[in-house]
Amino acid sequence: MLRSTLRMTNVPLKEIINAVSQLDAYQLIKYTAGLKVADRLSKKGLDFLEERIEELWCRVSYKKEFGFTPTLHLAKSINSTTKSNDYIRFKQCVGKHWSLGLIKVGLYLMDLTQEGQHDLINQIKSEMSHRYPKRAMKVINIASSGALPALIAYISSIQLGEELSPQSCACRFEEFLDNWDKMTVWVKQDMSKEEVDEVIMSKIVSEESEVLVFAIGEKAKISAAKAIANLNNDRIFRKNKYMWSLFPKRNTVGVPIFVWAIHKFK
Fold it and tell me: H/E element holding 234?
């Protein structure tokens, strides 16, 4: 009778909570299995342990995918970006690509930027920088700048225009990342038309095969638009065998996100 009573004695929840705080996911599974075999878990204790195992296991899984350890709530918010038009469009372009997890995080960081949560953005980027090389972090930096939707629109247009397979489109995207610093122009809010004009001309003189001009916000958009129009009217693009296209977007709070794609004739 005593033996049966001892076997049925449940471990107090307080003791379980203390034990859980010191165990990782694998240790916790082993701990839980031992208590279940010994029949020493109440329903409340089992529910608590199963919930904690799920949380820890998900965090391990999400760290592998995202490059940092999010809370379950944060992970769900990041995964919700897979329903966005931008994510769906990008995945259709590149197929199963190593950057998809980064794109998810990037789109979420873009939302955080619009909400002004810069401390959380810096915390996430700092943790990710310890795992990912510079090339991968460019995806995150592009996204947190707010330019990702316009870039995705441009990549999508390339795929459709050149009838690229997902593999070929993924290669083009990687070329963008490798040449990003040379091929991009970022128009700041306080830049004049003349200043933008000068920066774009420097890329043309250098004979860059492709130039992306990003303008985020009304003031930047106006300066960039005037500079592009001026170069176009002066036939600078045509004389140097360039053509250009505009990809206008707006973020969720209505801020314009424009990218002008300037590239050599083929």
Answer: none
Q: What is the DSSP letter of 161?
A: H
Give the confidence band of 25 by pLDDT, cuts at 50, 70, 90. Answer: low
Q: What are the pLDDT digits (tens) for 172-231?
A: 999 988 889 899 999 999 999 999 999 999 999 999 999 999 998 999 999 999 999 999
Residues whose CB is less than 8 angstroms from the CB of residue 43 and which lie 6 or more positions away in sequence, other chains included: none
DSSP string of 184-213, one letter each residue: EEEE-TT--HHHHHHHHHHHHHTT-SEEEE
Contact (CB, 8 A) for 221 and 256: yes
- CA 167, distance to chain mean position in Å, is 20
pLDDT the model gives residue 135: 82
| Alpha-carbon span 146 to 257, nearest angstrom | 7
Please state, in angstroms and rounded to a whole number, the distance separating the CA atoms of residues 256 and 42: 56
Query: Is 219 strand, coil or helix?
Result: helix
- Look up the pTM and report it: 0.71
Domain boundaries of the chain, sorted by first residue? 2-66, 67-178, 180-266
Strands 210-216, 256-264: pairing kind = antiparallel
CATH number for region 180-266: 3.30.110.20
How far is CA 33 from each of CA 28, 139, 264, rounded to the nearest angstrom?
8, 41, 64
Q: What residues are paired with 163 via a beta bridge? A: none
Phi, psi of 230 (to 5 degrees): -65, -45
